[in-house]
Amino acid sequence: MAAGSSMHLLSRTTRASVAVALALAAGSGSGQIVTPAPPPQPEPNYTPIADRPPPPIRQAAAPAEPAEPAFDPSTVEFEPIYRVENGALIRPEEGGELASLKANPLIPDDLRPVIDALLEDRVRAMYNVIIVNPREAVRLAQGEARTIDVGDRASLEAVAQLAREFGPQGGAITTMLQQGVITDDMAQMSRHIWQDYSQAASASIMERFRDAEDPNDQLREQARFLMNESLTGAYNAIETVFRQVLGGLGTPDAAEALALEGDAFLEAAGNLLSERSDEELTELFRAAIGGL
Fold it and tell me: What is d(CA 178, CA 128) in angstroms, rounded to the nearest whole number?
C-alpha cells in the first residue's frame, strides 16, 4: 500500500492493527476461510526405511572459501535526518526515504546528480496525478489524511482512496537499487538511516501519548504519522502547484494563504480552491504545472 514503506516503525501489535484497518478500508479483506490441505498420502511403491539399501558413500567436498563479512550499516557514521527542538521531533521536509538518500555517506558526489534527476522524475509523475485527480488533491491539502482516525471506518475508507491515488507506486530506494543506480550497500545504508528516523519518531509519539486517557490516541497518532509520511511526496508536489496557482490568482485571500507555511498553507489553499469545479481545477493545475 501507499503507506506500506514505513510500516517498520510501529510495534508488531500496532503495525498489525493499522495494517488490518487500512486493508479493510481498501477493500482487500476477502473474509474467506481457507480450507487446510489434506495430509500427504504415502507413495504407491513406498519402501520402509529399514528395508532400503544404505546410501552411497560420498567423498567430503573441499572446504568452501570463507565468505566476506556482510555489510553492517550500523558501523558507518551518518548525520540523522531529523532534529529535536524543545522536546519535539522535527521531521525532514522531503520525507524519510528521500532524506535518507541525500544523507547517505556511501553515495559518491558524482552519483548525486543522477539521483536528483530520478527524484525529479518522480515529482513530475506526481504532477500528472494531481491533474488527473484535482478534487482529491484538494482533499489532501485540506487535511483529510492528516486527521485519519483508525477507529472510524468512513475516515479509513476515504483516506485509503486518496492513498491509492497519491501514494508512491514504488519506493525510491528499491527502484534505484533495481535500476542499478545504487549498490546494495548503499540501499542498506539509506534504509538504516530511514529506520533511525522512524524509530525516533515512534519513540516521540509514545512519549507524548504515554499518559493519554484514551489508549487509542497513540495508535491514531502512529497511523497518522505512517500515512502522512508515505504521502510526503504528494504533499510537496501539491504545495508547489497550489502556490503557483494562487500566485496567478492575485486575489487578497490568495495572498493571505501564500503568506502561510506547511500544513497551514495547504489547508488554506485547499479551502480556497475547493470552491472551484473539477474542470476549473484541472485547467488551473495544468497551466500552473506548465509554468514550473
Answer: 24
Helix (H) or strand (E) holding 121: helix 112-132
Main-chain phi, psi angles of 4, to 5 degrees? -60, -35
Question: Quick one: angle between helices 216-230 and 153-166, nearest 10?
Answer: 20
Which residues, 6+ apart, have CB-to-CB distance to 232 below 8 Å?
Answer: 94, 95, 96, 98
Is the CB of residue 156 less than 8 Å from the CB of residue 25? Answer: yes
- Say if CB 29 and CB 23 are below 8 A apart: yes
| Whole-angstrom distance, CA of residue 269 vs CA of residue 259 | 11
Nearest C-alpha neighbor of 115 from the set 100, 136, 96 = 100
Q: 100: number of CA atoms within 13 Å, CB side?
A: 22
Q: Is 107 exposed, middle or buried (0-12, 13-18, 19+ CB in 10 A)?
A: buried
Q: Cα–Cα distance between 17 and 287 in angstroms, integer?
A: 42
- Separation of alpha carbons 96 and 197, rounded Å: 7
Q: What are the start-end ranges of the E strands in the chain?
A: 83-85, 88-90
Q: 10-residue block means of pLDDT along the chain (292 residues)?
A: 41 46 44 40 54 62 71 95 89 93 96 93 94 96 91 89 87 93 96 96 90 86 90 95 96 96 96 96 96 88
Q: How far is CA 255 from CA 192, 241, 258, 271, 292, in A?
A: 41, 15, 5, 14, 19
pLDDT at position 34 is 37
CA atoms of 134 and 153, how far apart (whole Å): 24
pLDDT in the model for residue 210: 87
Nearest to 155 by CA among 78, 208, 257, 224: 224
